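Hi W., the NAP complex you wanted:
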Amino acid sequence: MLSLGEVDAPAPAPGEVLLEVVATAVNRADLLQRAGKYPPPPGVSHVLGMECSGRIAALGESVTGWEIGDEVCALLSGGGYAEQVAVPAVQLMRIPAGVDLVTAGALPEVACTVWSMVFDTARLALGESFLVHGGSSGVGTMAIQLAKARGARVFTTAGTAAKVAACRDLGADVAINYRERDFAGVIADETGGDGVDVILDTVGAKYLARNLASLATAGRISVIGLLGGASAELDLGALMVKRGTIYAATLRARPIEQKAAIVAGTEAHVWPLIGQGLVKPVVYRVLPLADAAEAHRIVGSSSHIGKVVLTTGTSG
Ligand SMILES: NC(=O)c1ccc[n+]([C@@H]2O[C@H](COP(=O)([O-])OP(=O)(O)OC[C@H]3O[C@@H](n4cnc5c(N)ncnc54)[C@H](OP(=O)(O)O)[C@@H]3O)[C@@H](O)[C@H]2O)c1
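Structure:
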C-alpha cells in the first residue's frame, strides 16, 4: 500500500542540487517497487519516483551552470514522490519549449529511455522500420512519436481498439491489436517477409521467439521490460543467420556518467522535436500526490494511454 508520511528533508551532496518538486509521474517500475520486486539501488531513497519537474531550491558544492529558481525536470534514481529531492546536476534538463512545468514531470523517464535504447544503443536510422510493443504505454507513446519524427516506419502493438486508434493518431503506420491478430504475422505481411530493423520490447520471454521472427537482417532488439516473463529459449542459430543483436538494460541502475550522457543526448536530440511540436507529451491524468494509490490503480489496470502525473501542490 502507499501512504503519505514525513521524512527528513534531503540535502544536496557535492555535485547535486535540491529540487522543490512540482510534479512526478508514475512508471510501471514504481508498481513493482511498491510490491517489493524492484528495490532501489544501494544508497537511493526508498521514496518512490524516478522522474520529476520542479525548481532548484539549493545548489550543492561545485555545481555550476544552474541557479536557484531555475525550472527543470530530472531523471531520478528515486525520491520523486516527495516535496523535495536531491539529484545530481548532470541529471537535470531544461524544460522543453512549449511544455508546462507539470507536464514536464512526465518526460524524463520516457524520453531518456527511448533516446538511449532505440536511438543511442539500437541506432534506429532514417528510413528504417521500427516496432514498439505496448504503444499506448508511457514509453510507447514517446517511442512512436520520436521514431516517426526521425523518419522511421513505425509498427506497434496494443491491447484494445481505443489504444490502437490512439497509437495511429500518434503517428504509427501500422498499429496491431495483439489480442486479435498475431503481430509477427502482420509484420511479415507488411514488410514482405523482411521484418523490422529495430524492436523496442517491454514483454520479454513471451515475445522473444516472435520478435526474432519479426527481425530484419542485421536488426536490433532492445529489451527494456519483462511484462511477459524473463526466461525463454533463444534460437541462437536464427539470431546468427540474421546477424541480429539483442540489447537489454535498465536506466536506473546505470552509473552516473552514463546517465549524464543519456540526459545530454535526450536534451540535444529530443527536446528540439518537442519544441517544434513534432513530439508531444501524452498525459492521461493529473492527480495530487495524496492520490498516488489511485494513480497506481489506474496504471496497474492498464486503462491509461500515456502518462499519469502526480503533483505535489507546490506548483504555484
Ligand atoms: N529498462 C528501462 O530502463 C525502462 C524504463 C522505462 C520503462 N521500462 C519498462 O517499459 C515498460 C513500459 O513502461 P511504462 O511505465 O511506459 O508502462 P505503462 O504506461 O504502465 O504501460 C505498460 C503497458 O503494457 C501493457 N501490458 C501490461 N501488462 C502486460 C503484460 N502482462 N503483457 C503484455 N503487455 C502488458 C499494457 O498495454 P496493453 O493494454 O496494450 O497490453 C500497459 O498499458 C514497462 O515494462 C517498464 O518496466 C523500462
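Residues 160 and 177 are 6 Å apart (CA to CA).

W.
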